[in-house]
Amino acid sequence: MVRILVSLNVPILLVLSILINPKICMGEGILNQVDISGNLKLDKRFLVTDSVWIADYPYHEFNLKLKSNPSRNLSLYSSLKLRLWDQNLASSSADLTRISSSYPYELSLWEAYADLYSFISDKLDLRIGKQRIAWGTADKLNPTDNLNPDDFSDPLNFGEKVPTEAVNATYYITDEYNLGAIWLPSFKAILLPRGKFPLFSDATTPPLPQGTNLTESADHITFPDRKVENFIYAAKFSGTIMGANFSLSYFEGYDDIPIANRLVVTPIDTLGNVRLDTYLGFPKLHTVGIDCAGELYSIGFWGEAAVFLPEEVKMEIVMPNPVDPLNPIIQDTTILSDELYVKFTLGGDYTFKNGIYINAQWMHGFFNERGKDNLKDYCLARVEKKFKNDELKLALTGVLEIKDIEAIKENYGTAIIPEVSYAPADNVKLSLGAFFLDGKPGTLFDTWKEQDQIYLKTEVCF
Fold this sequence. Notes:
The chain has helices at residues 9-20, 99-102, 444-448; strands spanning 34-48, 52-54, 59-71, 74-85, 105-116, 124-131, 164-172, 178-184, 213-221, 232-241, 244-254, 259-267, 273-281, 284-296, 299-310, 313-319, 329-336, 341-351, 357-364, 377-387, 392-402, 412-425, 428-439, 453-461. By secondary structure, it is mainly beta. The protein has an 18-stranded antiparallel barrel. Strands 9-13-12-16-17 form a five-stranded mixed sheet, with no helix packed on it. A hairpin with a 4-residue loop joins strand 20 and strand 21. The two termini are 34 Å apart. Mean pLDDT is 89; it is low at 1-11 and 16-28.
């Protein structure tokens, strides 16, 4: 058994060392064997309304992945992610002297962790560092996957997550069963898209007093204090029964989407103009989850459900008092009750003998929905067919949003996503597709209906 003290900085040093001196990969020591891989994704989109406009939230992406196995009991992994937005941020001629004004970018250490195998015991593995901890068996629509914050940088590519620092221990009870325990020392919030994509439909503007006009606004976010009692914990028991995989899980942490808990309306002049300050926080959250996946008669199936027990959130609204300006009007309203609610996803897939592939899922409760009375249903189906030795693929995805099944005619939304992709060479894929979104008032897709767009994508892997 190899006993070694591993710092979170080890994978970071691995990346930096190779970037400074790539020849070190051929040298001796811990970096004598480094596997390098990655991919390049180019994503060009155009909004289709009255004319064609470039959408501002999509981005190009380059990923560089490095892996080293210096010993039988130690593995190191790091990845760098470079995002490049097609935006013009220059507001003056002086800004044109900086390339970042026309090509804004972000470079981040996406993942960086060390794997310790047979740590203390032959049955215990330990992963330490910035990592993606994926829970759930559904196809990207995972209500039990709450350890990493949502990555809504591209809101139409939902289901993505941002890796976070964690200590992840897995104890193998038998060959069929294992127990996992996870500790996250700090909380991270959702990553939102650039621009004005209408991700959230809940309004936080109170009814203003008669004769007033909202001219200024600002929001303020408060994160949980870095205290021991605010650490995030999770545990999962996994196993296999009759060829099907299953797990039972528990999560104690925070909702990564902020919620307004205080609104303050302040007069700024004697003409009735007012300023709105919105104060946001992150409610405490307990989640119990269950999932399973398997295959029956060549039909793949999966299902998962999560019971959410949220912290009650009351919103304080402070309004100006026209009668007594020194004593504002203060109102309290509950915007998130502590009543438990359940999200779930059921789905399956099948490939016919003629090569047609079908994937269908039913999701109750989208990622940005919370509260028992605020969950909607989403039915998704995707059909694919490949041609020319799998080089050419035609695909059609449809989504039906149901806000109220009893009055569905006025409470539904739709998304239609056709796509054609072509692989002219190994590890290269070109795609052309579109998003067509629409919905009745009050639905999620109603707020997205101005986001109809055509996309061109290129992906190269190495």
